[in-house]
Structure formats: structure tokens, C-alpha cells
Amino acid sequence: MCAAVCPVGAVTVDERVQPQGLKCILCCACVKNCPTGARILDAPAIQKIREWLAADFSERKEPEIYI
Ligand code: SF4
To answer: For labeling, which of 3, 48, 51, 66 is most exposed (least CB within 10 Å)?
Structure first.
């Protein structure tokens, strides 16, 4: 199922389901369509973005005006 939804053909299926890291564009289609939750996205880049968002955007900020 994940190989069928991958837009760049980055998942091969034979005896095992294997993602090909260099082809993957991190679109998360395979993660969203996995009916058993077996697919996860555990890329270091995703973790960095998650930490950045949590640190910088966890609170609402008032708009600032510069003249
Ligand atoms: S996250 Fe990567 S492996 Fe999964 S569907 Fe998108 S391109 Fe393919």
C-alpha cells in the first residue's frame, strides 16, 4: 500500500518493504496511508523542524511594527 502511494517510487516491496532514502522527498504519503501504523518518518531533518517549531512557535506572539 505504501509503495502504491509513494509519488517518487521510493518504496520497494519484495520480501521486505524498504524505503530508499535518497529518493524520498519526505511527503509522508506512506505514513498517512499506512493502515497499521507501521510506517513512521524518523528523519533527523524532521526532528530538527519539530524542535524548532516547538521552541519558536509554541506561544502566540503579538505583531510587531517597524517604522
Ligand atoms: S515519505 Fe518518502 S517513501 Fe513515503 S511516500 Fe513520501 S516520498 Fe515515498
So the answer is: 66
d(CA 5, CA 28): 10
What global pTM score does this model have? 0.63
What distances in angstroms separate CA 51 from CA 13, 45, 55, one per listed residue?
A: 32, 10, 6
- Ligand 1 pocket check: which of 1, 13, 20, 24 to mutate, most ligand atoms within 8 Å of Cβ? 24
* β 11-13/17-19 pair status: antiparallel
Residue closest to 6 by CA, chosen among 17, 44, 14, 47: 17
5-40 pLDDT per residue, tens: 999 999 988 888 887 878 989 888 998 998 998 888
